[in-house]
Specification:
two-stranded antiparallel sheet, alpha/beta, nine-stranded mixed beta sheet, ATP binding, purine biosynthesis, PRibForGlyAmidine_synth_PurQ, globular, nucleotide-binding, binds glutamine, Rossmann fold, hydrolase
Length: 223
Amino acid sequence: MKSAVLQLPGLNRDRDMIAALTKISGTAPVTIWQTETTLPDVDLIVIPGGFSYGDYLRCGAIAARMPVMQAVKAAAERGTKVLGVCNGFQILLEAGLLPGALMRNSSLKFVCKEIKLEVANADTDFTRAYAKGQIIRCPVAHHDGNYFADAETLKAIEGNGQVVFRYAEGTNPNGSINDIAGVMNEKGNVLGMMPHPENLIEAAHGGNDGRGIFASALDVIAA
Ligand SMILES: NC(=O)CC[C@H](N)C(=O)O
């Protein structure tokens, strides 16, 4: 499976993401720059974390309006898998590719720590390496991770199994409604998540609980 990583000014997790994808798939992802309007032919596009355009206006708001996002939207409509992590999740929400919004953490503080995630839906292209209900470790690092959706949207995403990850065991670091840490679109090919699985993929990271997300999306065996 071929993958690509979006690179935008201010993103800072792109190298970690490229390293994770390369290690897990054995092939380096292609990189995509903000001005590109024609994307390479890949199976998975990843929008990594960071502070695109300095988080001005709202996290992800400027990035979502760059030409490249029209191309990402078109690819998602054609069925290409799209994964957004942290700022990538914020960008996907601002671009309208996912439901809901991410607000300031309820503590009003930047949180950088390890939390626990429950795999709420293991029947997805991004989580089939896990079992439903499995608890995995994962780091978070953000100030705007407080997921919110109105009652109608919440009912729909809960009912459709679009909530893919929840913060487990009282580890919700940001006040997200229903402990939501990751959501996908109705079609199931676009996933956004606040935690950083690319930073927990090998022994040198202190564990590999995040590996299954990439192994699932890239269709390789999780080792
Ligand atoms: N690590 C990240 O991607 C941070 C996302 C965003 N800039 C925030 O702080 O909420």
